[in-house]
Design brief:
By secondary structure, the chain is mostly helical. The chain has 3 helices and no strands.
Length: 180
């Protein structure tokens, strides 16, 4: 298919315009890469000079003391459970089992009628003696929420300082289209 001289001339001008445009786009991309590189460098400076000290100070003043307090509270709760709750539960189970064994004993059944009157006064004294002291369920929930908050803060700090490869701008030069 042959083209007229006029069409060939228009196509040549169009090709020249496309090449000029391509060169301008290469210049724009080069400038954009330079600006992105400078922005990355400035962000690194800002992070190193401003953000890192603030995060470090915040960690030292808020996170570390809270974590230490939560650790002490968890240790105290563990000590309280080991020293108070487990022995009390064991004693209660042992008492209940001995009461069941005693109730099954045929000789004890006759004795139960006589003890019922005295048992009423004993149970009221036992209730007064076993009043709970120490941290309750609210304290345990508060310690749990404190631990969850500390983990959340540590996760946020980790997200702030982790390397993010998606922020890098490719330094590749785009290739020119093949001219015909």
């Amino acid at each position: 298919m042959s083209l007229t001289r006029k069409r060939k001339k228009e196509l040549k001008r169009l090709r020249d315009s496309a090449e000029v445009l391509w060169g301008q786009q290469q210049d724009v991309l080069a400038n954009a890469n330079a600006v992105a590189s400078e922005a990355r460098r400035q962000a690194a400076y800002y992070t190193r000079e401003e953000l890192a000290p603030r995060v470090r100070d915040g960690y030292e003043h808020y996170v570390r003391p809270a974590a230490q307090t939560a650790g002490r509270a968890a240790g105290a709760a563990r000590d309280r459970i080991v020293s108070d709750v487990i022995p009390a539960v064991g004693a209660t189970i042992g008492t209940a089992m001995s009461v069941v064994d005693h109730a099954r004993d045929a000789r004890a059944r006759a004795f139960l009628g006589e003890v019922k009157q005295a048992g009423r006064t004993v149970t009221t004294k036992a209730k007064a003696a076993t009043e709970k002291s120490g941290p309750g369920i609210g304290t345990v929930i508060a310690v749990g929420l404190g631990v969850i908050a500390a983990v959340g803060v540590l996760y946020a700090v980790w997200q702030t300082f982790r390397a993010d490869d998606e922020l890098w701008v490719a330094d590749e030069e785009p290739t020119a289209p093949a001219a015909e």
